[in-house]
């Protein structure tokens, strides 16, 4: 087996494990993190309705001015977490389940989670 195929199998195993534990909570929504090399985004999803309730990303137009001033991707992730928490507060969402989507909980994913906690989300 090629090295890339092994990496993809491991990633999918981690991803499915986190989804299995976090889906379909009747009283909590799911905060899902998506990470790429340049950007990071997060969504709050209602699995029972199949709808996205709030989302934030480094590519959002209202965050672009702030993101351009920050050089560190970790700090950008923290800003995205705080912005997502503010949007969630407008929609009266306080409790969520954190779905790291198979990514390790350190670096940018951890910074996004801390920013969301700082903004007022409980998970």
Distance between the termini: 38 Å
Instruction: Give the CATH topology.
Output: Nucleotidyltransferase, domain 5
Number of individual domains = 1
Largest sheet: 4 strands, mixed
Q: Ranges with pLDDT <50 over ≥5 residues?
A: none
Task: Name the helicity range.
Answer: 40-55%
CATH architecture: 2-Layer Sandwich
Strand elements, count = 4
Radius of gyration: 15 Å
CATH structural class = Alpha Beta
Tell me the series of helices and strands, N- to C-terminal.
HEEEHHEH
Round the mean pLDDT to the nearest integer and report it: 94
Supply the helix-strand structural class: alpha+beta
Number of helices: 4
Shape: globular
Question: In percent terms, what proportion of residues is strand?
Answer: 15-25%
Strand order of the largest sheet: 3-2-1-4
Write up what this structure looks like.
The chain has 4 helices and 4 strands. The protein has one domain: Nucleotidyltransferase, domain 5. The protein has a 4-stranded mixed sheet. It has 123 residues and is of the alpha+beta class. Strand 1 and strand 2 form a beta hairpin. Helix 3 runs parallel beside helix 4. The longest helix is centred in the N-terminal third of the chain and has 20 residues.
Explain the layout of strands and helices:
Elements: H1 3-22, E1 29-35, E2 40-46, E3 51-57, H2 64-69, H3 73-90, E4 96-99, H4 108-119
Parallel strand pairs: 1-4
Antiparallel strand pairs: 1-2, 2-3
